[in-house]
Amino acid sequence: MVVRSTQNTQIVVVGGGAAGLELVRKLGAHFGRRDHDIILIDRNRTHIWKPLLHEVAAGSLDASLDEVGYRGHCHRWGYRYLHGTLDRIDRQQRRVYVGPILDPRGREVVAAHSIRYDYLVLAYGSMTNDFGTPGVADNCLFIDSRGQADVFRDQLLNQCLRVSRSMQTDPASDAHVRVVIVGGGATGVELAAELYNAADALSYYGLEVFDRSRLDVTLLEAGPRILPALPERLSDAAKAELEALGVKVRTGTAVTASLLSAMEIAGGDQVPADLQVWAAGVKAVPIQNGLDGLEMSRTNQVVVRPTLQVIGDDRILAIGDCAFCKLPGQEKPVPPRAQAAHQMAETAYVNLIRLQKQKPLVHFAYHDHGSLVSLSRFSTVGSLMGSLVGGRLAVEGRLAKFVYMSLYRMHILAVHGWIKGLAVISVGHINRFIRPKLKLH
Questions:
Q1: What does the angle CA 363 – CA 97 – CA 99 come to, to the nearest 5 degrees?
Q2: Looking at per-residue confidence, does 309 or 229 come out higher?
Q3: Which end of the chain has fewer CB atoms surrounding its CB within 10 Å, N or C?
């Protein structure tokens, strides 16, 4: 007589970003809890779509209304959520080791522990790469998470209050809020524009003498132009829009060090700053005690095969920003972008099902749908790619804004499903009219 094992198939997903959260939602909906145990591990308790963090940082978006709580989401979709940070993995024993959870006073809430897995998906995301530039880690702010965005917003508001108070005390004061942003990619450009949107709204919230003329934003980019992923015409259009707002855009300007109150650039000159934001470069989040010999790229990403399985271990997959996926015939790896994470989640979902049925796996195929950059309420620029437009199509204005918002709506539908997703989108439209323009707490 054959005795059937009562142990469920355990699929562990590390990281609840765009890729990980979409994947566990699909797996939970497909398998349920009867024969499978789908587990999501994340160091945060809530999820917010990373492309929105610049709005959280500027106070234009209240993350409390737009974030997804993992505990409520897992109950709805049939997976389990564990709060914790990946410490290491043991491939021979098939175990994931999670570090201890500490409270703000350093007291242990949950001890370090391990979790077995039958299949493991690494989706722990990326962080800003400071390239070892002196002083950046100590003096600069980053916007990689909800917590970091909140810290920036608090410091921005404090500085605005200082300037407002200085102007009330001395109307002839030349006080300014000086913000220097390093990195002319999407994050840096979008944040620069969003700051002016926030400055325009501050006069409604007790800072009657403060306006955008008191905001001094400088965007530093080491390359020859901002937004290198876009066609040059759109890059130039975005630069012109930023300069019309008041942003000082300086391309071909490499930062050599971050000082306490200034950025030092090549040649020895300094750019004064009350707030310094580093948004140049991306690398995978480091894992404290490693990944048991998995092959890694120079940017600390896990090297994967076209099936998204890691090199040398068929039971482990990597998706999203932490995956280094160089497809056959391509010179460059798949870029760390939200659309790539979304597509990888779908391929990983299919392959995890096929692995258990011992069927041949499908290869990941990246479809670049273009790039879009929102300059807050002022403008949107970008390029769309696909057979419907005959290749690459440059878009600006209302069409670009509509497509940009559609990307977020697609993410909402992927995370919540059609019924609740449409409800969330509808509530979002209502909130645009009834909630405050700025989050100031």
A1: 125
A2: 309
A3: N
CB atoms within 10 A of CB 365: 9
User: In this model, does residue 327 exceed pLDDT 60?
Assistant: yes
The region that residue 57 occupies, defined by phi over 0 for left and psi between -120 and 50 for alpha, beta otherwise, is: alpha
Tens digits of residue pLDDT in 283-318: 999 998 999 999 999 989 999 999 999 999 999 999
Question: Is 160 in contact with 210 (CB distance < 8 Å)?
Answer: yes
pLDDT of 390 above 70: no
Of 181, 190, 186, nearest in space to 219 by CA? 181
In a 13 Å sphere around the CA of 419, the CA atoms on its Cβ side amount to 1
E strand map for 299-401: 302-303, 309-310, 313-318, 323-324, 370-375, 379-386, 391-396
Please say whether the beta carbons of 55 and 69 come within 8 A: no
* CB within 8 Å of 67: residues ≥ 6 apart: 46, 47, 48, 146
Do 294 and 307 touch, CB atoms closer than 8 A?
no
Bigger pLDDT: 214 or 96? 96
